[in-house]
Design goal:
114 residues; mainly beta; four-stranded antiparallel β-sheet
Length: 114
């Protein structure tokens, strides 16, 4: 089992900056990747960014140039810049573990509004 705890999120004005962090505990030695997904109201959950244990980073096209993902062992961070109202969503931390697949955090709300 892998347990994920997120922190960060909140309300930010358009053009603003926000940081998210996520800490994994449990069977972390078999985690293949950690990253972030988001889900806006009425929409499917979508990828924001992933950091593989190999060091490979993957970004959603809509977020390239505006977000930076970083990973430090069992923690993953997301720095978001120049936020837009359409970035408003619940952001979920994700860990993909070798044996049991996906684990999810509880989600943290990000609201971009004046």
């Amino acid at each position: 089992q892998v347990h994920l705890v997120e922190s960060g999120g909140g309300l930010v004005q358009p053009g603003g900056t926000l940081s998210l962090s996520c800490a994994a505990s449990g069977n972390t030695f078999t985690i293949i990747s950690m990253g972030w997904f988001r889900q806006a109201p009425g929409k499917q959950r979508e990828l924001v960014a992933l950091a593989a244990s190999t060091g490979r980073l993957t970004y959603a096209e809509s977020m390239k140039g505006r977000v930076t993902i970083s990973r430090d062992e069992n923690r993953v961070y997301l720095q978001m810049n120049n936020l837009r109202p359409e970035d408003t969503a619940i952001y979920f931390c994700n860990a993909f573990e070798y044996q049991r697949g996906d684990y999810w955090g509880q989600g943290t709300q990000v609201t971009v509004s004046q």
